[in-house]
Amino acid sequence: MSDSQEIALFPLQLVMFPGGRLDLQIFERRYIDLVTQCMRTETGFGICLLKKGMETVQPGTQQTIHRTGTFANIIDWDQLSNGLLGITVEGSAKFTIEDCWQSEGGVLMANVTFSEIDSVGKQAIPIDDDFTALSELLQNLESHPLVEQKNLIIDYDNLWDLGWRLAELIPVENGKKQDLLEMDDPWERIENIEQLVSELADEF
User: Fold this and answer.
1) Under CATH, what is the fold of the domain 4-118?
2) Strand-pair category, 108-119 with 85-102
């Protein structure tokens, strides 16, 4: 994957991180065409959080997106019981949008720059004892049936994995998750997660 390239975007009301997995139901013609092309060419698309607008575009409305997202590849697909196409995607690298536009087919396209560090496959950063409690929290979250079925591959001794997975799984609003995604320093991200977890604990 080059540092900068043109990709298709899939705006959603959620934040995805590298290494995460997501199940999607595809029913809009523009996205059926996109998924078909991605599977044929073995490419992916970018997932980014909506600032304004709905996932399904309504007449007279417009989608506004955040400028940082995660590139995802299709790792599985199937026809669902409701007849729709279901796909599973896995995040691989964070990107920043330079400019975007709507294609003739209705899919949002963008020129993006990929993060040099915030991506799957980078050298692991060992976790020190200060974050043992967060590692244990992640293991507890992973045992939840809805999380367990994703079959995530998690290195609990890697600061990247710990930050990405906790950022996805802790119950905070999407705006805070987006802030975590936009952080380039994994230590800053994990410290912010620690603060968010502490605030959640105080609510109970």
Assistant:
1) 2.30.130
2) antiparallel
Report how far apart, in Å, the C-alpha atoms of 191 and of each of 62, 121, 134, 195, 199 are: 35, 22, 10, 6, 13
Count of alpha carbons within 13 angstroms of residue 169, beta-carbon side: 26
Give whole-number Cα distances, 102 to 52, 64, 127, 191, in Å: 16, 12, 42, 37
- Report the alpha-carbon distance of residue 93 to residue 97 in Å, rounded: 13
Query: What single letter denotes the amino acid at residue 147?
Result: V
Contact criterion met (CB below 8 Å) for 197 and 180: no
pTM score, whole prediction = 0.89
| pLDDT tens for each residue of the chain, 204 residues long | 456 799 999 999 999 999 999 999 988 888 999 999 999 999 999 999 999 766 666 555 677 899 999 999 999 988 877 877 889 999 999 999 999 998 888 899 999 999 989 999 889 999 888 898 999 999 888 777 767 767 777 888 899 999 999 999 999 999 999 999 999 999 999 999 999 999 998 775
Cβ-based burial of 12 (10 A; exposed 0-12, middle 13-18, buried ≥19): middle
Q: Which of 114, 93, 74 is nearest to 164 (CA)?
A: 93
Residue in this structure with the two tokens 């996805």, named with its chain if needed: 168
Q: Where in the sequence of the chain do the CATH 1.20.58 domains occur?
A: 129-202
Q: Which fold has domain 129-202?
A: Methane Monooxygenase Hydroxylase; Chain G, domain 1 (1.20.58)
